[in-house]
Amino acid sequence: MPKAGDVIITRMQFVDSEGSKVRPALVLFEELGNIIIAGITTNMQMKGIHISTKEGAAQDSIIKLSYIFTITDEAILKTVFHLSPEKKRLVFDELLKRLSGLKA
Description:
SH3 type barrels, mainly beta
């Protein structure tokens, strides 16, 4: 089972049509077989958290915290690397910032 902070290669369903695409993603958490992930792109113009080849990425990339999906374990093709504790903290802090609008 994947763990929070794992960078995986997964098959993602297209939102607007049938079919899927193989993409990298970051595992945010897993619960009852549902795996919540954030997409990763090599488009360095996108907003998000930078991950580099030195950290294990195949190319310098951006974790897109505005691009969150739920997948199942069957969609995971492989685990590539695990984020450092410092990078996991950046992801956590950014998610908290984005979710702060839900506070009552």
